[in-house]
Amino acid sequence: MIVAYQGEPGAFSEQAARKFFGVKAILKPLPAFSDVFADVERHPAGFGIVPIENSLFGSIHQVYDLLLKHNFLLSAK
Fold first, then answer.
1. 4, 47 contact by CB (below 8 A)
2. Tens digit of each residue's pLDDT, the chain (77 residues)
3. Phi-psi region of 58 (alpha: psi -120 to 50; beta: other; left: phi over 0)
4. Residue 3 forms beta bridges with which residues?
5. Are 10 and 35 in contact (CB under 8 A)?
6. Which helix (H) or strand (E) holds 28?
């Protein structure tokens, strides 16, 4: 299973993806939130993980906008 996330290896999103999907998941770092959504939409990545809040800046409005634009199933654990 391939899981796309925004950021560099070692980022919090990578840690979250590893915790949620486990050690067998192949993690795919991408430079932008929109890239994560596009990758999942095109199906190279079966899943994507993005934050909806940041402890420093609060809600991440770009992610909310992308969630409204794309018709994906959401999950929270």
1. yes
2. 999 999 999 999 999 999 999 999 999 999 999 999 999 998 887 899 999 887 777 778 888 899 889 877 666 65
3. left
4. 27, 47
5. no
6. strand 26-30
Whether 2 contacts 47, CB under 8 Å = yes
d(C-alpha 23, C-alpha 19), whole Å: 8
pLDDT of residue 75: 65
Q: Do 5 and 13 meet the contact criterion of CB atoms below 8 Å apart? A: yes
Which amino acid is located at 73 in the chain? L
Dihedral sign, CA of 10, 11, 17, 19? positive
